[in-house]
Amino acid sequence: MSQVQHLLETHPHWPAVNAIYHKLQAAGYKAFLAGGCVRDALLGITANDLDVATNATPDQIEALFEKTVNVGKVFGVMRVIIGDADIEVATFRTDGDYKDGRRPDHVEFSSPEEDAKRRDFTVNALFYDLVAKKVLDYVDGEKDLKIKLIRTVGDAERRFKEDHLRLLRAARFVAQLDFSLDSATQTAIGAMASLVNTVSGERLRDEMGKLLKAKAASKGLRVMQETGLLKELFAFRLSDNSWQPRGPTKETWHFLSLFMRKASREELEKAVALLRLSVKEQRAILKSWELWQNPSAFLQKRRGEQLQALTDPGVLFALQVLLSEGTQSASIQNILDDWESWGAELPKPYLNGEDLKGKLSGKSIGVCLAEAFNEQLERRLDSREKALAWLQGYLQKEQHG
Questions:
Q1: Backbone φ/ψ region at 110: left (φ over 0), alpha (ψ -120 to 50), beta
Q2: Any idea of the CA torsion for 216, 167, 144, 218, to the nearest 10 degrees?
Q3: In this predicted model, what pLDDT tens digit does every residue of 129-178 receive, in sequence order?
C-alpha cells in the first residue's frame, strides 16, 4: 500500500468517505478525493478533512444520501453526514465571472480537468482516484509539491481577481507548508495587494490565525511584507516583523495578541475591529496589550487585586508570556502559584451586601466588600467567622473617622 493510500485509509473519516464513494460509484457517478487532503497525503501528512469531488449534481447527491446539508448548492457544494463524519461533497465545476472578488456569479458543472483549472494554487488542485489508486494532476501540482513551490493555477492576476482572499492565502500556504512563492505569483500579489482591503474581517481573521500558527509563520509574514500585504493590513509591523511566539499559545487570539503587541493603542483598536473578533477576544487582547505596556504597574498592585485580575484570560496570558521571556520571573511565578493554590478560580466571598445592610450605604458598601475580599484572597481571613469579626473592626474605624 502506498503512503498516500495508507494516510487516507487510516484517517478517522475514511469509513464515511469510503461509503460515500461506493454509493456514488454504484449509482454510476465518478468520485475522487480532492484538494488539500490529496496534497497533505503526498506530503506524508494526515489531513484535517477529506473532501470528495464528483460529477453528481447537488440534487443527485441530495437524493442519494439520507442526510445532507446545503452549504452552497448553487455553487455545487453539499455536505453529507454519515455517523460523526461531516464530509464535503462538491460537483466538478467551472466558475463564471467573479464580480465581488469573492464568489462566482454562476457556475457550470463540468469535468475534473476543468474543476482543477478553476482552483487557487496548483498544490491544492489535485485529485485522487480511489479505484486506480493514483493521483490525477492536470496542473503540475505534484511537480510544485516536489520543489516546494506555491504557484497559482493559470494566470496569477486572474486567480487573485476572482477571490481577493487568495492574496493572503498565498502567504498562509507558504507559512503552513514551509514552501517558497513562485516569482510570477509574488509579482501579481505585489501589484494587487490593495485588493486585500475588500476581504471581510472574518475571512482575514481566519487566514491570519492559520498563518501565525504555522510552522514557518515568519516566512509567510515575510511574503506579506515583500508584497505590500502587511502595509495594507498591519502597517505597524513593518518596522519589526520578527516572529517568535511565546507562552502557552493555543487560541487564535493568543497569536493575534502577540502579533499586535507592539502596536499603538489606536493601531491595536483598528486591527481588532478589522478582524471582527468577538467581544471576549477583543477584551482579552486589549488586556494583554495593556499589561505588556507597563508590567510594573500590575506587579505593584496588592495580591488580592492581582488575583481578581487573573479571571480575565488576557491578563493570565500576558503574565505567562512575560514569565516565558524571563521578565520579573520570581514575582510573576509567585502570583501564578498563588492563583493555582485557589484552583485557578476565585473563591466565594465570605461577606456580602446583606452583611452590611443598615451599616453602610452607597459606595461605602462596595469599598468595604472589596477590602474584605482582598483580605480573604491574601489569606488574612480564612473563615466567615473571622470575616464578620474583621467587619466589626472595620465599622468601628469608619465610625471614628
A1: beta
A2: -10
A3: 998 899 999 999 999 999 999 999 999 999 999 999 999 999 999 999 99
- Chain position carrying cell 491595536: 268
Strand partners, 152: 121
- How far, in Å, CA of 378 to CA of 303, rounded? 6
Asked if 365 and 356 count as a contact pair (C-beta separation under 8 A), the reply is yes
Which of 340, 338, 335, 342 minimizes the C-alpha distance to 318?
335
Strand 93-95, strand 85-91: pairing: unpaired
Q: Tell me the one-letter amino acid at 299.
A: L
Helix (H, G, I), strand (E, B) or coil at 276: coil
C-alpha grid cell for residue 68?
A: 445532507
- Residue 401 pLDDT level (bands cut at 50, 70, 90): low
**Residue 144: C-alpha distances to residues 151, 181, 208, 351 (Å):** 8, 10, 24, 67
Name 109's bridge partners.
93
pTM for this model (two decimals): 0.89
* Fold of domain 1-143: Beta Polymerase; domain 2 (3.30.460)
C-alpha cell of residue 168:
493572503
Q: What pLDDT shows up at residue 327?
A: 85
**Cell numbers at residue 209, please?**
490565525
The count of other CB atoms within 10 Å of the CB of residue 238 is 11
Lookup: cell for 297: 504597574
Q: Which three cell numbers stand for residue 251?
A: 487560541
Instruction: Specify the CATH number for 148-243; select among 3.40.630.70, 1.10.3720.10, 1.10.10.60, 1.10.110.30.
Output: 1.10.110.30
What pLDDT was estimated at residue 71?
Answer: 87
Give the cell for residue 147.
520543489
Helix (H, G, I), strand (E, B) or coil at 311: coil
Measured distance CA(10)–CA(41) in Å, rounded:
11
For residues 70 and 85, what is the distance between their CA atoms, to the nearest angstrom?
16
- Cα 289 from Cα 238, distance rounded (Å): 19
Question: CA 241 to CA 263: how far, in whole Å?
Answer: 12
Q: Which residues are CB-neighbours of 285 under 8 A, at least 6 positions away?
A: 253, 256, 257, 260, 268, 272, 277, 314
Express each pLDDT in 354-394 by its tens digit: 999 989 989 999 999 999 999 999 999 999 999 999 999 99
